[in-house]
């Protein structure tokens, strides 16, 4: 892809191709991963994610019904879509990835139907479930790198992102923003900001998987933060399970009444 404009045109063409091939309608499409978080490298992939609805008849099929599609149109692009029913079930469980999709700053498609859904889903956010998710993700990546003398800056930033997202939830009890810069500004102690600024500047120039030097201050910060996040998540009460009826209603509306009913 030569530039952002050509990438955008290619993404839109592929979204239309997916709709035609699978007889679906895409109601929301975004960028996930490094580009959405704000720390892309020159060779970062385009990680396109989308939410779709099938034709109503497909939901009454007694055979196997797909609830996701994966498409890899180019080596530097992957496109993954979830059926709206699957997506809303994950929202009901306070799945952090589902909330991240909803909050991506890079949006390729957004419909009126999606706006109705977006107004509703944050009611299902559960701080305990989300902090557990971010703790687990950060601990897994850090453990895989803790004995190495070098580390990819992508791994560093991924670990820091989830820690800062969890810290944001701890402070504000709401869905954290996607842009890494917002999390840094809100949550990162001043003594680590110099190292993070340097890493961001370097990562913008090097390849995704290049191994680079470690930062003692960041390693110390990560080692201290991860156990605390786990302990904090364990201290939280599960919270009252929200009523699933509003999600059922909006799912029915999006599939039957509003969206396909116009065709």
UniProtKB/TrEMBL annotation:
Domain of life: Bacteria
InterPro entries: NT_sf, RlaP
This protein's name: Nucleotidyltransferase
